[in-house]
Specification:
The protein is mostly helical. It contains 8 helices and no strands. It is 79% helix and 0% strand.
């Protein structure tokens, strides 16, 4: 078995463990996540580096930079204060900026209908979460607004990638990321008492999204991008 496959299996195991812990309401599970969650991105980054496809994949370094920023976000979001949420959002916005730039650099001659669809989805879904964030702290509203737009832009840019192999994985990963953050936003800003299992759904979709985005980057060495 290749080193990259072992590392991907390790990532899957860590993701499953952290997802299970996140769905538990106990303080002990939360403390255990201070070990499991910060290990996610370093393990995925190691798998990305070890994958033999990476040597010819122009988007690999894009994914690695995004994973470093996401690791910072993961660590900061272990805190529960509004400032922790804002710091995590900023870190993840940097990650999404890397993907947006990389995907647009490799866009093909494709219809912009998907971009309009994503923009419409954001225009319908985001305002409620932005208003909810502003009710907690007024300054959180613009943070959530800008971050949610960055996540939507990642999905929109993914749909424009020229290579079908890259586009399929990138679009699936970005869509799962959008779903994960939508659940997180609803849990934190809209629902009065969200069930603990909802955090498990956030982490399950997040972990899968990160894996698919890394896979998309590695596929960028196959054929013309």
């Amino acid at each position: 078995m290749r080193t990259s496959q072992i590392l991907k299996a390790a990532y899957a195991g860590l993701a499953a463990t952290d997802t299970a812990l996140s769905a538990l309401p106990s303080s002990r599970a939360h403390r255990m996540r201070r070990v499991s969650k910060p290990l996610l991105m370093p393990t995925l980054a190691a798998a990305t580096i070890a994958d033999p496809r990476g040597g010819t994949a122009p988007l690999r370094n894009v994914a690695l930079r995004a994973q470093v920023a996401a690791w910072c976000g993961d660590v900061v979001l272990l805190g529960d204060e509004p400032a922790d949420f804002a710091g995590g959002a900023i870190a993840f916005a940097v990650a999404h900026g890397n993907y947006i730039d990389g995907f647009l650099e490799h866009r093909g001659q494709r219809s912009r209908g998907s971009v309009r669809a994503v923009a419409g989805l954001w225009a319908v879904a985001a305002p409620g979460v932005i208003v909810g964030a502003g009710r907690q702290r007024r300054w959180l509203a613009p943070v959530v607004g800008v971050y949610s737009a960055a996540v939507a832009a990642t999905l929109a840019s993914a749909t424009l990638v020229g290579s079908r192999e890259v586009r399929v994985a990138a679009t699936a990963g970005a869509a799962l990321f959008l779903l994960s953050d939508s659940l997180l936003g609803a849990r934190r800003f809209l629902l009065r008492s969200a069930p603990p299992a909802m955090e498990g759904a956030v982490m399950a979709t997040y972990s899968a999204a990160q894996f698919l985005l890394a896979e998309a980057a590695l596929r960028s060495g196959i054929g013309d991008v």
